[in-house]
Known about the structure:
Blueprint lengths: L21 H13 L3 H13 L5 H17 L5 H11 L8 H17 L3 H14 L3 H15 L6 H15 L4 H17 L3 H14 L9 H16 L3 H9 L33 E7 L5 E9 L5 H10 L5 H4 L4 H4 E7 L10 H15 L11 H15 L8 H10 L5 H17 L4 H12 L6 H14 L3 H4 L2 H15 L4 H12 L9 H16 L3 H9 L17 E3 L9 H6 L3 E9 L5 E10 L5 H9 L2 E2 L15 E8 L6
Antiparallel strand pairs: 1-2, 1-3, 3-6, 4-7, 5-6, 5-8
Amino acid sequence: MMLVAWMLATAAVPGSAGPLTPQAQFDQATAALVAGKWSDAAAGFHALGERSGVTQRTRAIAAMREGGALAHLDRGEAESVLHRGLELASPNDPDLRDDRANTLLALAGIERANFDFTAARRDLEAARAATDDPVTQLGSLLSLTGVTMFDEDDAALRYSDEAVRFIAAHKVALDLEGQVHDLRGQVLLNRGDVAGAIVELNIALKDFGGLTTHTDLDDVNVRANLGLAYLLAKNQDKARKLMAMTGEGRVPDNLMLGAPADSNVPSCGGGITPEDVVVVDFGIGDDGAVLYARPIYASHRGPMAVEFARAVYSWSWQPEWVKKVPLFYRVGARIELRCTTASNRPSPIRLLQVDLDAWLDAQHVPPAADDESEARRIPKLRAQLTEREKKGEDVSLIPVLVALAHSSGTTFQEAHEMYVRADGIAEAAHAPAPVRTFLAIKKSLPVSSKRRDEDAFLASLAAMLQEPSIAGDARSAATVRLQLAQERSYREPLSSSKDLDAIIEDKRLDPHDPLRVGALLQMAALKAQQKDLAGARHYYDQTGLNDQQCALVDAQPVKVRGTASERDYPEEAREWGLSGWARTEFDVRADGSTRNVRTVMAYPPFVFGPSIEQVVARQKYTQTFRPEGGLGCGGESFQQGFHYVTPGGY
């Protein structure tokens, strides 16, 4: 309860005219806070805190409450305002206990959202110590259970036990009891006690009303948790039935929650093995950005679970598509994840971006706005572009245009126009050949996978080699030729060989230049496909690589056989009307066969991964060449996604 009598020495009520008194200003801001009018509350408390003549105590309360309102608005300055309020507040003032507790809870919420679970645990404990208010006590226990669930100690179990004792001693609403049992079930699930988790989650399901046609986010959450527990218990029938009642994989009109436009998962190593699996719960906003991400299950405790959730938070979806999916199906979505063993090897075009960055740096051009999430980065980039456009068609526009064009949230047509514009600015600024080549290739990229668009791209690349500025620069010419060779390698091997020979014979390139080494590897692969193993060995030996080494630029295998069919649809998923997708990662052997096939991403969890792995296992790719016949590139992994959609979408 918010008490005001002790707030200020003066309690005058303002007259019909003139500025508000401090007390009236406080009353007005408090009313806005209670009504959930966060912007009004934040502005009111900020003005009160800045007012001359008010006491430090008043400033402390104003800052704590302003910070709480800002936290509700998800404003970046909320954390610093909350900390300022705590610093101003006397820790020995008993009348400030509730405000201190609320401030600590708000801080813990921000820290948890930023994946700093250690700091969140500290502030949640401090909130419990600051007040004996029952609501704060139980809320802190539930949050503490969440932030310690994947810790290697037994803290989460102790917190959940205490929460169970609390609801036994106090009369609380059934849905609150359900939250307590749901969290305890998750704790047990992550400790390997699947049977105990099923008991707790069934209690939670009953508290939320059971398996009825009524469905809200609480129902979805506990059903999904119980379904996951039954999956881990190998009870497929109960698991699929529960999943069918969560909405996962059952979006109307086949508007299935598709794969993100850009995504990443943690690399294997540092305590994460290829066999480890994590399930993350997340929501997607209208702009395609992830609203929140939290780990639900991990195959072992430790920091791994939080690391995967942090990765999901940086993902983005195409805004135009995601708006078509009802919000209900975009909140509380779950995904199965594993680490990646793929190495980060750039395309030939990407190598020229180093030249672009170096040139812009020499021109003292500030970099483009950055953010972990492409969806959240786009508004920053567009605002930055608008600001820089005030100077006209200036070189400072280039990094922003390139960043926007490369973004997953930009359409093909927009990207083309941005690259054309950037190239025009670069030409006027007399940019060096590698910079112009980079932009020339980018603005010529095909806008679809249709044959005519791909042929137009090849024609553009061939025309670039007639440009004196490109032909006269060794790295520019080699990049264009290597791109041509890669595009033609399967359909036009003879033309591909001519382009590769031109790179290999270009004396202007260093013998160990990555573009030349890439050309040698592609030539070795072409010779192997033609059964000329002596010729393949001749070119491979010039690379200086051993059988297990990867070049910076290497031949990308092209799939030549193996697609998914109706018979690959999992029978259980078909029976329950589930749609979904999975992304696999696998090695390609020198003979083009696949091995080490594993699911790295799947929606819904544990449904489509195994069947899609079987599809990939029978696929065939173009051959590469390694003298000992091992992997095409010493453990290099490739990713491929598949989508299954049920008729009718239900």
